[in-house]
């Protein structure tokens, strides 16, 4: 039987980072991959979705030009060329990952799907069996598909399928108002695909602040048909079409599409691991309790990292967790505790949707004594110059200390505002210190300053905010 100090299951982002961290402690380790190399992020996640969005932004910019008095021809979208670039660039990113895999000692790489046969015993579907002193589980996540969708048969697709398309389809029904549904629905819509986005329960991405969520629903809904709480009676297949029966504004409707794209959530990829044989105590989801500071499960020799840990299923968190889990698996039993970064989430819609630090729901549920500062981008100087003047940003600060706690936004260039705020929150900055930082003129960040000033007023630190649109002129 093959014997190793550390076995890592899954060669995605978390698993590859875990391998490098564990390698510093031992040369007796193995990285096991059951599917294709290349990582979810590069193959079918972050990168191809952003490539599709970039093409959609180019088309949207052409359509927006008449608003400046510039009249180009309407965009002609060549679907095969759009998808060709998406796949070419995607393959380039995947190529870099594959090079990193090739750099790993070949005796440390194993192909096959692993499952537990005992707390320290793994069996691969190739028949190989190994004894591992410590194990890192980094198996990622899989799409959750409601049974309701079975009726559409092979017209049901997920994100992976989109990035394999040779051409753009004519019409797609997208289900799910989370990050995947929002990003793909808006991008496809802007690329000339007829899209309708069906949400459930009123959610819009990761937003929990009702006012910001409403503003985001309105901004996305102004671009394409989007109901965050759709009343769908039936989905079925008729010939090569997907038929969706739903209610809109009290009226029964039926619409036909080529595909039903499910973006209805992702779950930890635990099926097939036979975790029951691992000796861990499992909850009703079939998962053990994991310490997010050590990534250790119940003080055992088993560690989790990335989406499978169901902590924050984002790329930079997967990398951090891989580093923590790999290092601790390597040094076990002398496990070290690590502090985690300030939460940061960005959805690459237009306008961007973003969350930073503590969410409105977390602060409210914990009865935290906080105040909110606001800016509406409708009248924000630079946003108006650029005709990007849609959105709402709420920033939360602690009463008594003025410490910045978090923010939720749907905002132009929100990806950058969210970073500024995340860095300020992690640095423990208070609102007055943030306001003492330089703000250039005219920039979108002046909108953030308006929200910070409003927060300062609401915390009782200053009497009033300067008059409306002060960032339109000198002396701001
Ligand atoms: C469409 C989409 C867009 C996204 N966009 C963003 C974004 O813009 N920004 C962001 O931060 N995040 C984004 N994400 C999330 C991000 O991609 C994930 O958080 C991240 O890729 C998770 O990495 P991981 O290492 O946990 O999993 P993965 O990269 O999925 O790696 C898990 C690996 O484990 C293997 N495996 C599974 N079971 C077994 C087994 N039993 N034996 C052996 N191997 C096994 C799998 O084959 C896989 O290779 C996006 C996700 C999707 C789907
Ligand atoms: N830009 C980014 O960072 C980015 C982009 C894409 C994905 N991701 C990551 O991937 C994860 C998974 O994304 P996701 O969007 O699939 O999941 P999600 O869980 O965030 O959202 C799923 C949405 O689908 C809705 N839903 C569930 N059942 C439904 C049904 N029957 N009909 C209509 N809607 C239904 C839910 O209410 C929810 O709003 C995210 O949590 C995120 O961490 C990140």
UniProtKB/TrEMBL annotation:
| Active site location | 441
Cofactor field: FAD
Q: Please give the name of this protein.
A: Dihydrolipoyl dehydrogenase
Question: What Pfam families does this protein's entry cite?
Answer: Pyr_redox_2, Pyr_redox_dim
**Disulphide-bonded residues:** 41-46
Task: Please report the stretch or stretches of sequence annotated as the FAD/NAD(P)-binding domain.
Answer: 5-322
Q: Which domain of life is it from?
A: Bacteria
Q: Give the residue spans that cross the bilayer.
A: none
The family database entries (Gene3D superfamilies) matched by this protein are listed as: 3.30.390.30, FAD/NAD(P)-binding domain (3.50.50.60), Fe,Mn superoxide dismutase (SOD) domain (1.10.287.990)
**Which residues bind NAD(+) per the record?**
176-183, 265
Cofactor binding description = Binds 1 FAD per subunit.
**What are the entry keywords?**
FAD, Flavoprotein, NAD, Nucleotide-binding
Question: Residue ranges of the Pyridine nucleotide-disulphide oxidoreductase dimerisation domain?
Answer: 346-451
């Amino acid at each position: 039987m093959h014997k190793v100090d550390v076995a890592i299951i899954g060669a995605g982002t978390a698993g590859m980072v875990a391998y490098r961290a564990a390698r510093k402690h031992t040369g007796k380790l193995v990285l096991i991959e059951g599917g294709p190399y290349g990582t979810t992020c590069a193959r079918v996640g972050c990168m191809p979705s952003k490539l599709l969005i970039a093409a959609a932004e180019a088309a949207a910019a052409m359509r927006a030009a008449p608003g400046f008095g510039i009249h180009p021809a309407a965009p002609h979208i060549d679907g095969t060329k759009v998808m060709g670039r998406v796949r070419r660039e995607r393959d380039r990113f995947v190529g870099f990952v594959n090079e990193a895999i090739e750099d790993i000692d070949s005796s440390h790489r194993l192909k096959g799907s692993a499952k537990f046969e005992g707390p320290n015993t793994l069996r691969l579907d190739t028949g190989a069996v190994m004894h591992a002193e410590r194990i890192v589980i980094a198996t990622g996540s899989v799409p959750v598909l409601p049974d309701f969708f079975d009726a559409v048969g092979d017209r049901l697709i997920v994100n992976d399928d989109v990035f394999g398309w040779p051409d753009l389809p004519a019409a797609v029904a997208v289900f799910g108002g989370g990050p995947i549904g929002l990003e793909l629905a808006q991008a496809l819509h802007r690329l000339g695909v007829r899209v309708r986005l069906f949400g459930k329960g009123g959610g819009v991405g990761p937003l929990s602040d009702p006012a910001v969520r409403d503003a985001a629903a309105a901004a996305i809904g102004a671009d394409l048909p989007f109901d965050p709480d759709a009343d769908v009676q039936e989905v079925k297949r008729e010939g090569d079409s997907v038929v969706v029966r739903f209610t809109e504004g009290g009226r029964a409707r039926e619409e036909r599409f080529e595909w039903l794209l499910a973006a209805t959530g992702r779950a930890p990829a635990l099926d097939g691991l036979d975790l029951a044989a691992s000796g861990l105590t499992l909850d009703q989801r079939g998962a053990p309790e994991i310490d997010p500071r050590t990534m250790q499960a119940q003080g055992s020799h088993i560690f989790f990292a990335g989406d499978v840990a169901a902590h924050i299923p984002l790329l930079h968190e997967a990398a951090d967790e891989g580093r923590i889990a790999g290092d601790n698996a390597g040094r076990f039993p002398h496990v070290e505790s690590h502090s985690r970064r300030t939460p940061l989430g960005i959805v690459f819609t237009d306008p961007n949707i973003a969350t930073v630090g503590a969410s409105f729901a977390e602060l409210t549920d914990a009865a935290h004594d906080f105040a909110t500062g606001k800016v509406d981008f409708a009248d924000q100087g630079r946003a108006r110059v650029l005709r990007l003047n849609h959105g709402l940003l709420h920033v939360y600060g602690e009463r008594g200390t003025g410490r910045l706690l978090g923010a939720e936004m749907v905002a132009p260039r929100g990806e950058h505002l969210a970073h500024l705020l995340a860095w300020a929150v992690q640095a423990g900055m208070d609102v007055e210190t943030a306001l003492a930082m330089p703000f250039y003129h005219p920039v979108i960040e002046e909108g953030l300053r308006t929200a910070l000033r409003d927060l300062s007023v609401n915390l009782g630190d200053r009497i009033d905010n300067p008059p409306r649109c002060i960032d339109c002129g000198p002396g701001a």
